Amino acid sequence: MNSYLFTSESVSEGHPDKVCDRISDAILDAYLTAEPQARVACETLATTNRVVLAGEVRGPEFSHEKIENIVRHCIKEIGYEQQGFHWNTVEIDVLLHRQSADIALGVDASGNKDEGAGDQGLMFGYACGETEELMPAPIFYSHVILRSLAEARHSGAEPGLGPDSKSQVTLLYQDRKPVKAASIVVSTQHSEDLSQEEVREIVRPHVVNSLPEGWMCDEENFYVNPTGRFVIGGPDSDCGLTGRKIIVDTYGGSAPHGGGAFSGKDPSKVDRSAAYAARYLAKNVVAAGLAERCVIQLAYAIGVAKPLSVYVDSYGTATVDEGRLSQAMQDLVDLSPRGIREHLGLNKPIYARTAAYGHFGRKPDPDGGFSWEKTDLVEALKSAVS
Questions:
Q1: What pLDDT score was predicted for residue 100?
Q2: 378 three-class SS
Q3: What is the DSSP letter of 217?
Q4: Contact predicate 234/85, CB 8 Å
Q5: Which phi and psi angles does 94 have, rounded to 5°?
Q6: Of all helices (H) and strands (E), which one includes residue 284?
Q7: Distance linking the first and last C-alpha atoms of the chain
């Protein structure tokens, strides 16, 4: 279809699942700070005034008190000081244990064997020219709206807002290009004394200012707290789990997803590192002008270093043969788990910041965060396929 509607959603750092992602990634950062080669797979569950951690680790010994302090710090930074979920009173169960020796046997490098993938699986990366960040527009603007609301809440400009919120952006596409918002949905937790209409007017400028000029939908398609009230929120209202927002974390449904979550996993897990590598390659392809849209699939087997396949699809927009693109990528970047980690500098405590508002479409940080968003492969790709 040349004319159609497409919708993506985002959720804030205070959404129950995102609270869990943040905690899992903060635990990961703590281990990588102490030991860059640490292995971590940390899962978090959060419900009414309770957090449960489970999973496998290999690295330094952390006391339960140290881990509990990390959890409380995360909850406090997000902003939860509510009766049903409070950073200071929440009960925390720590059930982390040592990584399986059988998994370590397949993953670790030894003798002439390179480091293998931590599991089998397939990962996708995507980029397109719909925004300057080379991200699909619906998910990008969904994130921007919630980041704006969160910044106003944290700064004290909007003290009536709570940490838990969601957005949903439906864009009208014409000739496969987004031209305006057809509808906007924002649900945000708020204080008891604010009415639905007052919340609507608090939210409105954050939506208008987040969208390109002239893109705001009409009034009847602008929905704010459609149920009328959102006072009880966060894990007190809905149980949260690590890894339940994989489409929010990636491309909002605009591209395929292999099914593996990111948060709480160290970069030896290809669910995370290979998805970052695939985004890095796809973004550089589009930034180089070699395609208007590009999706890349990488596939791995547990214990095997090299990917089983490197698939490229430009949806018919490539200016060069896709097979040549696939080979050029493999020539330029070592797509083994070790090669990806070294190329992108992933063995660093850079993950808590990824836990909300998307892992992609962010600006690279000076300390190595979001390194997969760099476009430093552009000239090499052009040269390789010329």
A1: 73
A2: helix
A3: P
A4: yes
A5: -110, 110
A6: helix 270-287
A7: 33
How do residues 254-313 score in pLDDT, each as one tens digit?
999 999 999 999 999 999 999 999 999 999 999 999 999 999 999 999 888 899 999 999
Query: Which residues lie below 8 Å from residue 123, measured CB to CB, with a gap of 6+?
Result: 258, 260, 270, 271, 274, 275, 277, 278, 297, 298, 299, 300
Whether residue 19 contacts residue 240, with contact meaning beta carbons closer than 8 Å, is answered with: yes
C-alpha closest to that of 165 among 50, 309, 298, 17: 17
CB 101 within 8 A of CB 289: no
* CB distance 300 to 117 below 8 Å: yes
Overall size of the chain counted in residues? 386
Contact 43, 95 (CB under 8 A): no
Residue 231 has pLDDT above 70, yes or no: yes
CA nearest 43: which of 61, 57, 59, 58? 57
What does the alpha-carbon distance between residue 28 and residue 55 come to, in Å, rounded to a whole number? Answer: 11
| 361 token code pair | 């479409």
Predicted confidence band of residue 119 (pLDDT cuts 50, 70, 90): confident
- pLDDT at residue 151 is higher than 90: yes
Asked if 286 and 44 count as a contact pair (C-beta separation under 8 A), the reply is no
Contact at 8 Å (CB) between 143 and 361?
A: yes
Q: What are phi and psi of 309, to 5 degrees?
A: -155, 150
Q: Are 347 and 39 in contact (CB under 8 A)?
A: no
CA distance 319 to 317: 7
Residue 221: strand, helix, or coil: helix
- 89 C-beta neighbours (distance < 10 Å), count: 11
Q: Are the CB atoms for 234 and 74 separated by under 8 Å?
A: no
Beta-carbon count within 10 A of 317 CB = 15
Give all strands (DSSP E) within 35-113, no chain letters. 39-47, 50-58, 81-82, 85-86, 91-98
Q: b/e map of 2-41 (b: 16 or more CB within 10 Å)?
A: eeeebbbbbbbbbbbbbbbbbbbbbbbbbbbeeeeebbbb
pLDDT tops 60 at residue 149 = yes
Q: What are phi and psi of 195, to 5 degrees?
A: -85, 165
What is the Cα Rg of the chain in Å? 21
